[in-house]
Write a structure and sequence with these properties.
The protein is an alpha+beta fold. About 45% of the residues lie in helices and about 10% in strands. GO terms for molecular function: ATP binding; protein kinase activity.
Length: about 800
């Protein structure tokens, strides 16, 4: 029998050198003759606890009992019983005598007495923690007595240890034996190693070795007495030295006193069963016990109960012991979220609990769960992650964001919910600095290009604001290709006035990235037009921007005059960019806080932009407006047929090509205006008015195919409004979706574009315009282009019949080919 026990103990190792664990410093206390060490695994450095028991020879009584304890702990498994990992028995020579040592490795734990001193809990928080711990030990004792018919025999504070998650667990199984009360033939001691139990912990029948009375008693009689001893030591704060001290009940809570007295009944048969203690005691009915119990049986709760619980949890966590919340509740909550048993409101509680952790612990306990949640298909979880991204976004590494987070977040750009699209957009303010240039250029900018023509005006506005904020994270080439096109061709021509204002502010905030040529030829012409905008806030911003950019151009002039060779390469930004950038960031982050928006330091902050950002569901009459490339008199429906630019890597590539093509046409366009100025030298406004009064013939042209005819809408307010109003969409009888989208004639396009931009050829309609056929649509048309002298030429249009081309305007060069050719 002895050889068998030695084989059981030594079966998993042959010596200390072969022990796959490192033995560290010992704790100051342990049960019986065991020594409790800290330890780590040699494989991965994971913490463990190592217990050692030494004897002079293999037949030493303590070693024999220790082997029994190892065997029992190895075979009995319960959540509230210490988890066994490894064991070995080693024989060494200590001088001339031999020494035998048993090593037992378990999960990392700490003696209960030392953990209580370390926590230092007081008042109600201490009582709640003690109640939770006693609840755990009572469940372990009930399992042994009622389910396994085993008697522990030595329940006390020394036999309880605490895990890293502050769970109490029962160990010290050296005395553990089967209860043989039903065996009438049994006559010897039922507890073979009862001599290891201290006399102060023995009930009366055990002190007298009355085995007959013990066998006639319930299986829980001895261990119920031990529970009473544990309760006394716990609340008195002193180790029990004599049995008579158990009568001192001054430190016992009143809600537990009656059960305490029943546990220590002098009659074994009347002692309270540990299972009844769990069911009836008022002491265990507190917030901490109920909260942890709910989390442990979360899978058994319905969705309504879960939702109610998790909404209350953030406030409840403030009332519970902080150490227990962080070390016990937080891991349970993270696990529940990770495996899908927790609802979206649990995310708020997780982030609040995580804020109490150190940076290192936060990265180990909270961030891995958050990263996994980004892959969730639950829309509520995704919304919660994006709403609170400012709380954890800075803690994410660049590699994690680029490889694991962004691919899932990017799905929100195309979501059918406008609210989720805007949350995704705003999250980029935190995530974009951590993205690689490849991801920004190859993915993010494409999504932002689509969002700049989103049906929601607030999303279009926020997209412009975001571009202004992340401009510093773009490469130089990307900035040259994207920023001016996005801010001028789209933002400044948006029908939503806060979007135009955001475009002006974004240009000012990124002014350091533009050279003098870009400012003079591409930025100032577009901003000057907005000085007569219908919206007063846009006008005021436009005047400020004009002053700022003129100052920058003057800097260039001064440097060029003094012969500074670096003047042509770039211009330093003036003070004021910082406040503008700060305004843009505040407008993004202060969602739904008008009172805070009013306190911003920037003098340019306006209520319309703040409202457009805070109200994601606001849809104006022009919410479906789709900005297009620079064009004036050609039918806009043909824009949808243009092939993508071969050099385009994002949504603004096509815009860039059109802008670059304007430079050669600028000279020709202004040449058309010069003869008029020489023939009648007067103010520019007089020329415009004269052009408006010039009679223009506009014959109606019938379309030869099945398409309905195109009707140009004459604006009634052309003389007073240079921008006009968007024309009504032309109804389409065919099933071509792209032409229906592009058929909105937008008079808000920059009037200067009629002069500078080349006119795309039409491939989807035939039009015959004479002598400035779009003068009603654009006041500058009669000045910029003389009437064509030749008729339209038919073009083949993808098998849809012959279509005449749009007339060429003035001396402008045609830099684009029709998509139908």
């Amino acid at each position: 029998m002895l050889k068998f026990l030695k084989g059981v103990v030594g079966g998993s190792g042959t010596g200390v050198k072969d022990l796959p664990y490192n033995i560290g410093e010992p704790y100051s206390s342990a049960w019986g003759s065991w020594v409790h060490y800290r330890g780590t695994s040699k494989d991965d450095g994971a913490p463990v606890s190592i217990f050692s028991l030494s004897g002079s020879n293999a037949n030493d009584g303590h070693l024999v009992a220790g082997r029994n304890g190892v065997k029992r702990l190895r075979t009995v498994r319960h959540p509230n019983i210490l988890s066994f990992l490894h064991s070995t028995e080693v024989e060494t020579l200590d001088g001339s005598s031999a020494k035998v040592t048993i090593y037992m490795v378990t999960e990392p734990v700490m003696p209960l007495s030392e953990k209580i001193k370390e926590l230092g809990l007081e008042g109600s928080q201490r009582d709640e923690y003690y109640a939770w711990g006693l609840h755990r030990i009572a469940k372990a004792v009930s399992f042994l007595n009622n389910d396994c018919k085993l008697v522990h025999g030595n329940v006390s504070m020394a036999s309880v240890v605490v895990t890293q998650t502050l769970d109490w667990k029962l160990h010290a199984f050296d005395v553990l034996s089967e209860f043989d009360g039903n065996n009438e033939a049994a006559s010897g001691p039922m507890l073979q190693y009862e001599w290891l139990i201290g006399s102060q912990y023995k009930p009366m029948e055990l002190s007298k070795s009355d085995w007959a009375a013990i066998r006639n008693s319930p299986p829980w009689a001895i261990d119920s007495w031990g529970l009473g001893c544990l309760i006394y030591e716990l609340f008195s704060g002193m180790k029990l030295s004599r049995t008579e001290e158990l009568r001192n009940t001054a430190s016992i809570p009143k809600s537990l006193l009656q059960d305490y007295q029943r546990l220590l009944s002098s009659t074994p048969s009347r002692r309270l069963n540990s299972s009844k203690l769990l069911e009836n005691s008022e002491y265990f009915q507190n917030k901490l016990v109920e909260t942890i119990h709910f989390m442990e049986i979360l899978n058994l709760k319905d969705s309504v109960e879960k939702d109610t619980f998790f909404r209350k949890l953030p406030n409840l966590a403030d009332q519970l012991p902080r150490e227990i919340v962080v070390k016990k509740l937080l891991p349970l909550l993270a696990s529940a979220l990770e495996f899908g048993s927790a609802t979206a409101p649990a995310l708020t509680a997780l982030l609040k609990m995580g804020s109490w952790l150190s940076t290192e612990e936060y990265g180990l306990k909270v961030l891995p769960t958050i990263v996994k949640l980004f892959a969730s298909n639950d829309r509520a979880i995704r919304v919660g992650l994006l709403q609170h991204i400012d709380q954890y976004g800075e803690s994410l590494s660049s590699q994690t964001v680029d490889e694991q987070v962004y691919p899932h977040v990017a799905n929100g750009f195309s979501d059918t919910s406008a609210f989720l699209r805007e949350l995704t957009l705003k999250s980029m303010l935190v995530l974009a600095p951590k993205l690689s240039q490849r991801t920004i250029s190859g993915s993010l900018l494409k999504f932002l290009s689509k969002l700049q023509v989103d049906e929601e005006p607030a999303i279009r506005t926020n997209t412009t604001i975001l571009l202004g904020n992340i401009a510093s994270y773009l490469s130089e080439g990307t900035r040259k290709r994207v920023l001016i096109n996005a801010f001028t061709v789209r933002a400044l021509r948006d029908t939503f006035s806060p979007a135009r204002g955001a475009g002006i502010m974004a240009l000012c905030a990124t002014s350091s990235y533009y050279d003098a040529t870009e400012i003079a030829t591409r930025i100032l012409p577009n901003i000057v037009v907005l000085t007569i905008d219908l919206d007063s806030d846009v006008r005021s911003k436009a005047f400020e921007a004009v002053e700022q950019f003129l100052h920058l151009v003057k800097q260039y002039h001064d440097k060029a005059t003094t012969g500074d060779t670096g003047a042509a390469t770039g211009i330093s930004s003036i003070p004021g960019n910082a406040s503008l950038l700060g305004w843009a960031m505040s407008s993004l982050t202060l969602k739904g806080k008008p009172s805070e928006q009013n306190t911003l330091s920037s003098s340019s902050t306006s209520a319309p932009i703040a409202s457009s950002i805070s109200n994601t569901s606001s849809v104006t009459d022009d919410a479906n407006f789709t900005p297009v490339r620079v064009s004036s008199r050609s039918d806009l429906t043909d824009l949808a047929d243009h092939p993508p630019s071969p050099t385009s890597t994002d949504g603004w590539g096509e815009l860039e090509n059109g802008i670059h093509g304007e430079h050669d046409g600028d000279k020709d366009g202004w040449d058309d205006i010069e003869p008029l100025e020489e023939a009648k030298p007067s103010a520019a406004l007089a020329n415009i008015q004269a052009a408006q009064k010039r009679p223009v013939s506009l014959p109606k042209t019938q379309v030869s195919n099945s398409r309905p005819k195109s009707t140009l809408k004459t604006g009634k307010d052309d003389e007073s409004d240079l921008w006009g109003a968007p024309a009504d969409p032309v109804p389409k009888s065919t099933s071509k979706p792209s032409t229906a989208k592009a058929s909105r004639v937008v008079d808000e396009d920059d009037p200067w574009g009629a002069i500078a931009a080349p006119v795309p050829k039409s491939s989807s309609k035939s039009m015959s315009l004479k002598s400035g056929g779009s003068a009603d649509d654009d006041l500058w048309a009669s000045i910029a282009a003389p009437p064509p002298t030749t008729g339209p030429k038919p073009l083949s249009g993808r098998g849809r019949g012959t279509k005449p081309a749009a007339p060429k305007l003035g001396a402008q060069r045609i830099n684009r080919t029709s998509s139908g050719m």
